[in-house]
């Protein structure tokens, strides 16, 4: 029969820079976020937070608040005592073989508050104003205790203790590596360099604050939670455990998500509060954080102090590297909060160098500060930063050019696959070629002339290299669902979550490339836990590797089902059916039918023979894949005014290997965002607490973020080596901008300051910090 179906287009497949399909909706203001939702009968929740960093709860007076107009209930820790606890979900082991001291966090505390912003009660009222007014009327009787806000004070002999079960406030003492072998390498080294480095604490500052709407479906005896998160399948499991109900009694729904960067990946106490009140009151309960409360109560990122060491032989070859880290984990452990130092520091510290031995020791402390959670890279950018600072110090110590020292120690392309000292198996890449490309793109040879031009204007100029290699998260089990809809569209179902990345576009490109389905007909369903049979969520730069692989495998199943169905429709044998460019064709003939027409015919067919599928729908689970290793070299150029300490970022070059790029335009956008966040950490961002635990950076008047005027044009270049660890050949790109920018910009600043005798500076290099370093050196 002749083909009377739709002819699939050939444009917009894998490798093309297609503009994001999501953007028109967002630019028109039509995106639906949690705060846009208004359910029938909805009421409002306001949290009551501790004004003290540390103290014993003597009493909480709720009578006055409960009597205020419109108030439906006031709840304290006693009301929430029957629910589960929050804590770390990782099986981390101390160096003595004992497990991590997993100090549990109740939904609301009944004995002690442990940081400013710790929620101790909540009010539900008819309107937001009534709820907030009543929350302010709740009376707190708290016996103030001394606080600790950093690792050094937490570890001091007479320090206040946050938990009886964590003596010395130490919850994790982890060790990796052969200490004796590393010690021997250092003893035999011709050169040893050491750096004491800080990775400053960061406020996440997602554009959309956290919020949630809880409902109770009495007929189904089921909780429904609407919120922004990084994956509804995993969030459902966390909420079910917190509410102490079976998985089937929880449904999680997510609309658009305005940023997360790791922070919204796990449950928070407020989510249990709205569900509790919804069940009790029989009405939907909505809570939304404001920006001030976000600074106080959101999980924060980074916050490490490390001693980094590198041993080299007389020819500049790396012999061993050693890292001793102290991690400030905040007042409570989040599910992945302790993950960064013992896991990602270990995996990423070797970078793309042939370092034979590494040793990583890490101690995690609890303090009277907001809890720590993963933040864009979750230890990967930090580990690369530590190594790159060591390499720059080694270049000065040995007198070897910084780029040449890196070349001398790179894992060579001919040595791949290469097992790193951390046990990672690097499968692909050409690290030296990327470095050389970055040097050429940045015109490093012409830098002396540019430095002289700056000097003539009384300014200091510096250039810095940020070499990096990241070990991505391991792609977990992931759903690849393909559903052919009655209106001729196709719905992709995935357990990963777009919280700003733009998943619909590259996923649709994959489907068009494999099945010939026009991109504009592809929808993305990702925010309903009921629709999922698996889902690892988004994080660790693994979404495309996981969902992409799941989509391709599901597409293969669609083709196989389609061969059987097309054989029936075209009156041919299944073995004679070929598939190409979205069409099933009888081999050697012009008889064909498009995939979309076939799906429509199956939907309307009154009866079908046995063995012929009644639809082409597929619900598939991708098993898993090894991690991948995105890598690259970033080069930053800065100018510094020695009279003011102001650092101006003049130029930025980024050469990256992300394997196969499904959508180069979107990849470049991801790098831009990551670089901007890295620049923010290097130049301006730092969460600061007073000695008594009061937050000093609780608004954008006190906490600076980079603006467009702080960023130069970013020159993006790709030098890909396809990964062999997944079918797509992709390596992940979401966090690489931070990994390259932290060392590149910091090394550029030090390069500018070195002629004045400044050899060290910590992030953030704010004007007053740079100015003071210059004055101290003079």
Automatic annotation (TrEMBL):
Gene3D superfamilies: Aldehyde oxidase/xanthine dehydrogenase, a/b hammerhead (3.90.1170.50), Aldehyde oxidase/xanthine dehydrogenase, molybdopterin binding domain (3.30.365.10)
A Pfam family that the UniProt record links to this protein: MoCoBD_1
SMART domains: Ald_Xan_dh_C
Keywords, in A-Z order: Molybdenum, Oxidoreductase
Domain Aldehyde oxidase/xanthine dehydrogenase a/b hammerhead: 28-146
Cross-referenced SUPFAM superfamilies: CO dehydrogenase molybdoprotein N-domain-like (SSF54665), Molybdenum cofactor-binding domain (SSF56003)
Gene Ontology molecular-function annotations: iron ion binding; oxidoreductase activity
Record protein name field: Carbon-monoxide dehydrogenase large subunit
Biological source species: Falsiroseomonas stagni DSM 19981
């Amino acid at each position: 029969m002749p083909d009377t179906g739709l002819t699939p287009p050939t444009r917009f497949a894998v490798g093309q820079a297609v503009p994001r399909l999501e953007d028109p909706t967002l630019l028109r203001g039509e995106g639906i976020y949690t705060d846009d939702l208004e359910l029938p009968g909805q009421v409002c929740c306001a949290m009551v937070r501790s004004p003290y960093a540390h103290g014993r709860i003597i009493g909480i007076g709720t009578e006055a608040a409960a009597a205020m107009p419109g108030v439906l209930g006031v709840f304290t820790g006693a009301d929430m005592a029957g629910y589960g606890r929050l804590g770390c979900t990782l099986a981390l082991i101390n160096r003595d073989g004992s497990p991590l001291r997993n100090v549990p966090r109740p939904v609301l505390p009944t004995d002690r508050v442990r940081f400013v912003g710790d929620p101790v009660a909540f009010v539900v009222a008819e309107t937001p104003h009534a709820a907030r007014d009543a929350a302010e009327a709740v009376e707190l009787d708290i016996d103030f205790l001394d606080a600790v806000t950093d690792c050094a004070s937490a570890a001091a002999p007479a320090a206040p203790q946050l938990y009886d079960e964590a003596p010395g406030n130490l919850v994790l003492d982890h060790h990796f590596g052969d200490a004796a072998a590393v010690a021997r390498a250092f003893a035999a080294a011709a050169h040893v360099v050491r750096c004491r480095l800080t990775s400053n604490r960061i406020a996440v500052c997602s554009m959309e604050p956290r919020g949630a709407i809880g409902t109770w479906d009495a007929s189904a005896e089921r909780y429904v939670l609407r919120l922004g998160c990084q994956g509804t399948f995993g969030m459902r499991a966390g909420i079910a455990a917190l509410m102490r109900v079976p998985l089937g009694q929880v449904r999680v729904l997510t609309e658009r998500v305005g940023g997360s960067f790791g922070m919204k990946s796990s449950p928070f106490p407020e989510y249990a509060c709205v569900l509790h009140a919804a069940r009790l009151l029989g009405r939907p309960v909505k809570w939304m954080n404001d920006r001030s409360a976000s600074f106080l109560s959101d999980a924060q990122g980074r916050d490490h102090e490390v001693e980094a060491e590198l041993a080299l032989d007389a020819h500049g070859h790396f012999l061993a590297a050693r890292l001793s880290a102290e991690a400030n984990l905040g007042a409570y452990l989040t599910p992945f909060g302790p993950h960064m130092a013992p896991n990602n520091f270990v995996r990423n510290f070797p970078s793309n160098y042939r370092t034979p031995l590494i040793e990583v020791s890490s101690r995690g402390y609890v303090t009277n500060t907001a809890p720590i959670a993963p933040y864009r890279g979750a230890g990967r950018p930090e580990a690369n930063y530590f190594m790159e600072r060591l390499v720059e110090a080694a270049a000065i110590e040995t007198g070897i050019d910084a780029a040449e020292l890196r070349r001398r120690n790179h894992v060579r392309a001919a040595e791949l696959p290469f097992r790193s000292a951390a046990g990672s198996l690097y499968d692909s890449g050409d690290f030296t070629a990327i470095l050389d490309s970055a040097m050429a793109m940045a015109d490093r040879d012409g830098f002396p002339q540019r430095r002289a031009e700056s000097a003539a204007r009384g300014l200091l100029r510096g250039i810095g290299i940020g070499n990096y290699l990241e070990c991505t998260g391991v792609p977990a089990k992931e759903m690849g669902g393909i559903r052919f809809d009655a209106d001729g569209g196709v719905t992709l179902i995935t357990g990963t979550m777009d919280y700003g990345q733009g998943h619909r576009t590259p996923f649709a490109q994959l489907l068009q490339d494999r099945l010939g389905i026009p991109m504009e007909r592809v929808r993305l369903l990702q925010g309903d836990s009921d629709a999922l049979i698996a889902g690892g969520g988004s994080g660790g730069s693994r979404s495309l590797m996981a969902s992409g692989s799941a989509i391709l495998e599901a597409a293969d199943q669609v083709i196989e089902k389609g061969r059987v169905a097309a054989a029936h429709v075209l009156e041919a044998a299944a073995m004679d059916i070929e598939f190409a460019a979205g069409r099933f064709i009888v081999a050697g003939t012009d008889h064909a039918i498009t995939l979309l027409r076939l799906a429509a015919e199956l939907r309307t067919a009154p009866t079908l023979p046995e063995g012929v599928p009644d639809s082409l729908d597929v619900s598939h689970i991708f098993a898993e894949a090894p991690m991948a290793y995105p890598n690259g070299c970033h080069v930053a150029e800065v100018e510094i005014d020695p009279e003011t300490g102001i650092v101006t970022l003049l130029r930025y070059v980024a050469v990256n290997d992300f394997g196969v790029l499904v959508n180069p335009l979107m990849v470049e956008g991801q790098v831009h965002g990551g670089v901007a966040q890295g620049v923010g950490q290097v130049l301006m961002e730092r969460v600061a607490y007073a000695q008594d635990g009061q937050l000093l950076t609780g608004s954008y008047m006190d906490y600076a973020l980079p603006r467009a005027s702080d960023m130069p044009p970013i020159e993006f270049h790709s030098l890909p080596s396809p990964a062999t660890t997944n079918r797509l050949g992709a390596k992940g790109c979401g966090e690489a901008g931070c990994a390259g920018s932290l060392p590149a910009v910091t090394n550029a600043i030090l390069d500018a300051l070195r002629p004045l005798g400044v050899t060290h500076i910590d992030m953030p290099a704010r004007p007053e910090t740079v100015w003071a370093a210059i004055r101290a050196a003079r």
